[in-house]
Amino acid sequence: MIDAIEFSQRLIRCPSITPAEGGALDLLQETLEEIGFCCYRLVFSEEGTADVDNLYARFGNSAPNFCFAGHTDVVPPGDLSAWTFDPFAAEIRDGILYGRGAVDMKTAIASFASAAEALISNSSFTGSISFLITGDEEGPAINGTRKVLSWLEQENETIDVCVVGEPTNPTRLGEMMKIGRRGSMNSIVKVLGQQGHVAYPHLADSASHRLVRMMDSLLAEPLDDGNDHFQASSLQITSIDIANLTENVIPGTAEARFNIRFNDMHSSESLKKWIKMKLDASAGGAENYEITVRVSGESFVFPPGPLSNLVADCVERVTGERPEMSTTGGTSDARFIKDHCPVCEFGLVGQTMHKVDERCRLEDIEALVGIYQAILQDYFRKS
């Protein structure tokens, strides 16, 4: 039997910092093949990006196909001297597992595997269980889940429902699951003015003054007030760069970066038009600036339905608490999966993800296995 805690340790000991595979997918593939999964290793490439290794595994050939999705890649550990334990040693102290990936999200993958093996070993069921695991979630997400999904379509492989194991709980296991995510878009604005002497402003065109007016126009009014499923959309200016180290020179160029996390009252296309309208007016014309936009994902929500209610029922049964169905937080690969099947997310407590001394409680891992087991059992019982 797959012990989720021990398997979590083995996965954490694989230094799979994006985009390196680090042995994590090798270990997962070997483990899944031992319990009867048919595995496909998928390496995708694109000019200007690193090659990324992915894994699709399936047990069974019939419908419905229940998919667990997630990622083995992790963010860099940062300053190693700041960690209590080596971030890739997977040390356990006082009922706590430490290590990079202990929350986000190698423990969830180990729990997936343990739950799947329990169902396969202890019961007969009609249908299939699959794993869609990428090594590119923490990176640009170009050669990962999105391309695996395209490959599945080409192979006429259908996923009927999907649970993503991202950490979803703010403070304790059982309080929150995700039924959607806000969209995210990043913009870089470069303002074009004319450098000059501060004593002769009539002979210059201050890029800094123009940039301040432009950013103010974006912040002057809220984008919206939110709705039943989403918080209000948020525009955050993340950087203003003028690179002017003197006090007597009017800058000729200035740059700002901002991010918009948007709900389903907007799309990236509608926001691009809104940004252009605001900036054109405050900049005195589109010829006075340049802008680049990168969209990480659109907003989406699956209102409470069969899958989310099933997950909530199982979480409540194991933890005694019915989770809030939320769309808060950042983005995840669910933004790609939602175009193919109903998807929701449930995983561990996310307080320490991406932090020094990332860690989780062993009892939470054990409870997560119980939740995933219950989800599989109930899903196939009702299918």
Explain how this protein is built.
The structure is a single chain. By secondary structure, this protein is α+β, with helices and mostly antiparallel strands. The protein has 2 domains: 4-181 and 300-382, Zn peptidases (Aminopeptidase, 3-Layer(aba) Sandwich); 183-297, 2-Layer Sandwich (Alpha-Beta Plaits). It is built from 9 helices and 19 strands. The protein has helices at residues 4-12, 24-34, 106-122, 145-154, 207-219, 268-283, 306-319, 334-337, 362-382, and strands at residues 38-44, 52-59, 65-71, 92-93, 96-98, 128-134, 161-164, 176-178, 180-181, 183-192, 196-197, 234-241, 249-250, 253-262, 289-297, 300-301, 324-326, 343-345, 359-361. The protein has a 6-stranded mixed sheet, with helices on both faces. A 4-stranded antiparallel sheet has the order 12-14-10-15, covered by helices on one side. Strands 4-5-19 form a 3-stranded antiparallel sheet. A hairpin with a 7-residue loop joins strand 1 and strand 2. The protein starts with a helix and ends with a helix.
